[in-house]
Design goal:
With 276 residues, the protein is mostly beta strands. The chain is 9% helix and 28% strand. Strand 13 and strand 14 form a beta hairpin. The two termini are 32 Å apart.
């Protein structure tokens, strides 16, 4: 799975799959269900959900979307650090036309607003080779409605991460794991998975090793069928109306025994708040 940007489901750097595929191939018709195994969602219902985009790199068919993000203040968006990196070189990528798209459920429309990003912050401890501390903050040129903001989990909070807790993940990513990118936003509900279970699933491997200090897993561990996927990187994992995680990495999409791995926001929320 890898970073869930767009490549081998690493959800890693979303430059991922879209960078590798022609725009026409990366944007098929939208099926009825999605994210993988989810349903359609709306930025009207969840106004804090935003798309991170670069038309110069990913083309204009889907507004240049390559990652997701969450509005946490009128001028700040949380996303995954790996969204700002090139998976092939492991180096930061400069996209002069980097924008955050607010209020656009369907990426083929001109609804909402495309807001320029004036600065970016990446957790100084982020390590792309291990997927640790996978969090970044984007600063917007134009303040947004404060009522669109989603509150973040508290530092050190444990309850939202308890095994079996219902979480919801959002994104415009692959619906099947085979490059089926929709134009509309989707969401799916997933149960949180115990750290010990996730550690057994990701004890080693080319995609990464699970580390509960900065990671948490969610998904149907034995059944599969529901998951984030490529193109969902940076998007929110929400529990009880709070941002608790960020789509980060994994193996494949919606495979049994390979749940999605998310940034454990409670472990680094103080650093994020320091950017507000």
């Amino acid at each position: 799975m890898g970073a869930r940007t767009r490549s081998p489901r690493r959800r890693r750097a979303l430059l991922v799959l879209l960078a590798a595929l022609p725009t026409a191939l990366a944007v098929p018709a939208t099926p009825a269900s999605a994210i993988v195994g989810g349903v359609r969602a709306s930025t009207g219902d969840d106004p804090w959900m935003v798309a991170v985009a670069s038309r110069s790199v990913y083309g204009g068919t889907r507004s240049g979307q390559f990652c997701g993000g969450t509005l946490i203040s009128p001028t700040k968006v949380v996303t995954a650090a790996h969204c700002l990196y090139d998976e092939s070189t492991l180096q930061r990528v400069d996209r002069p036309d980097l924008k955050v798209i607010v209020g656009r459920t369907d990426l083929t429309t001109d609804a909402g607003e495309e807001v320029p990003v004036v600065s970016t912050w990446v957790d100084p401890d982020y390590d792309m080779s291990t997927n640790m501390w996978d969090v970044a903050v984007l600063t917007l040129a134009v303040p947004q409605d404060p009522h669109r903001v989603l509150p973040m989990v508290a530092r050190g909070a444990g309850a939202p991460y308890a095994a079996g807790t219902t979480a919801t993940v959002f994104g415009w990513g692959d619906l099947t794991g085979n490059g089926s990118y929709p134009s509309t936003l989707h969401r799916v509900q997933l149960p949180m998975i115990a750290d010990t279970t996730c550690a057994a699933d990701y004890h080693s491997g080319s995609d990464g090793t699970f580390d509960p200090r900065a990671m948490v897993c969610a998904g149907r561990q034995t059944l599969g069928g529901r998951d984030a996927c490529q193109g969902d990187s940076g998007g929110p994992l929400v529990v009880a109306g709070k941002l608790v995680g960020i789509v980060s990495w994994g193996t494949g999409c919606a495979e049994p025994g390979h749940p999605g791995v998310y940034t454990r926001l409670s472990a680094m929320v103080d650093a994020v708040r320091g950017q507000l």
